[in-house]
Amino acid sequence: MSHPLILDHFLPYRLSITSNLVSGAVADTYKALFGLTIPEWRLIALIAEREGITQQEIGALSRMDKVTVSRAAIALADRGLIERRPNPADKRSQLLALSEAGRHLYAAVTPKALEMEHALFGRFSDAELETFIAMLRRIDAAVLDSGPPSDGGGAI
């Protein structure tokens, strides 16, 4: 074999390791400060951006599976952070909106999220970050163009 696989240089592996490190740091902070899991925070943020969004839309935007979205929505509704409203366009689904408590929580979490982002990425220039985000979007597109998405099991 002329080009052996060296796992630490295998880009899918490196991307997974980095993603796990960043997600772990963020998850620990959200849990400790706000009692939120990453999926719960993603739902709150997406609902704040798109008031009146369905769980299916959240799954498509976040790439989270239906079960993860459903569990997070149930947990947030049980805590009084989101409200479910009838969806006039589709009687089988509901529109999710932040409750007043959910809006207050979002307002509290957002500055901390931005602070964590700056702590992690503040050592990079704006140009580097723009290039990095563009590359991530190109990777997303390449994966989506390559065929049906996997279950996200993370085996690399």
Measured distance between first and last alpha carbons: 20 Å
Q: Looking at CATH, which topology would you report?
A: Arc Repressor Mutant, subunit A
CATH architecture classification name:
Orthogonal Bundle
Number of domains: 1
Sheet bearing the most strands, described? 2 strands, antiparallel
Strand content: 5-15%
Measured as a percent range, the helix fraction is 55-70%
For the biggest β-sheet, the strand order reads 1-2
Let me know the CATH homologous superfamily.
Answer: Winged helix-like DNA-binding domain superfamily/Winged helix DNA-binding domain
Structure description:
There is one protein chain. The protein has 156 residues and is mainly alpha-helical. It has helices at 11-34, 38-49, 55-62, 66-78, 100-121, 126-145, and strands at residues 82-86, 94-98. It has one domain (7-145): Arc Repressor Mutant, subunit A. It has 6 helices and 2 strands; from the N terminus they run H-H-H-H-E-E-H-H. Strands 1-2 form a two-stranded antiparallel sheet. Helix 1 (11-34) crosses helix 5 and helix 3 (55-62) packs across helix 4 (66-78). 14% of the residues are buried.
Entry keywords:
156 residues, single chain, 2 strands, Arc Repressor Mutant, subunit A, mainly alpha, 6 helices, two-stranded antiparallel ribbon, globular
